Amino acid sequence: MAGLFDEESGPGTEDDGLFERPLFGEANDNPYGAGLAEGIAAGTRIATEDGWRRVETINPGERVLTFDHGPRRVQQIMRATLSDGCSHRPPHMLPLEVPPGVLGNAEAMMLLPEQIVLIESDLAETLYDDPFALIPAAALEGYRGVARIAPQQSFEVIFLQFEGEEVVYANGAGMILCGSADGTSLDALMEGRGDYRVLPLDKARRLVEALIEDERAE
Predict the structure, then answer these.
(1) pLDDT of residue 88
(2) What is the pLDDT of residues 158-200, one digit of tens each?
(3) Beta strand pairing status for 45-48 and 51-54?
(4) What confidence tens digit (pLDDT) does each residue in 121-150 have?
(5) Within the chain, how many helices (H) and strands (E) appear?
(6) Which end of the chain has the least Cβ crowding within 10 Å, N or C?
(7) Signal peptide span per the entry (predicted)?
C-alpha cells in the first residue's frame, strides 16, 4: 500500500514507511500501529471559516474551526484510497458507521477504527479525571448502534494536518482529532507528549462499556 499518499503541501514526498509497520490489533500489542485505519472519510463535512465543507474539498492554507483554538490554518493535506470495498481487511480493521447523534453528529458518518474522536461524559471524569476523553473510534463499536461496515466501493481518506494537533468539528458537533505537520505520533499522544493525550484502547473500551451500562440503567 506504500505510495498511496499524495502530498499537497509541506516538506517531503515519501510515505516514510507508513504502511510498512504492523496494523492495529496485530501481534506486537501496539494498538496504534500505523496503517490505513485512520483519517477522515471523504464526504465528511468539516466546519471551516467559510461554513461546512466536505473534507475532500478543503485545501492547504484554508482555515478550519477547532475545538480549542478557533480558526486554524491547514498546513498540509495527505490523501489515500481505501480500496476493494474493504473485503480483504480483517474484521477489526473495517470502518465503523456512526448513526446520527452518537457523537453529536447531525447525520450518519463513517470512522476508520484508529481515528481519534473526542467525547464528553461525566463518566470520563469519574474514571479518568477529565470530562473530555480522546478515544480510538474502534472503542465505540456496539455503542448506540455503532457497527462495522464493509463499504462496497473504494473511497478516499483525507488527512488534515495543522501546526499542532487540533480537534475539529465533523458533521455537526462530532469532534475528531487531526495531526500536526511535524508528524507527532499517536504513541506520543498516548504518553502525553503532544497537545492532547489519547486513551489506550483498553481504557477507551472500559469507558464506552461504562457508558453503555449507564444508559441501560436509566
Answers:
(1) 65
(2) 999 999 999 999 999 999 999 888 766 556 665 555 678 899 9
(3) antiparallel
(4) 999 999 999 999 999 999 999 999 999 998
(5) 3, 14
(6) C
(7) none
Cell of 150: 464493509
Three cell numbers, residue 183: 508528524
Tell me which amino acid residue 179 is.
Answer: G
Alpha helices in the chain (DSSP H): 122-128, 186-190, 201-217
Single pTM value for the model? 0.79
Q: What is the mean pLDDT of residues 6-14?
A: 36
* Secondary structure, 3-state, 117-168: EEEECHHHHHHHCCCEEEEEHHHHCCCCCCEECCCCCCEEEEEEEECCCEEE
End-to-end alpha carbon distance in the chain? 46
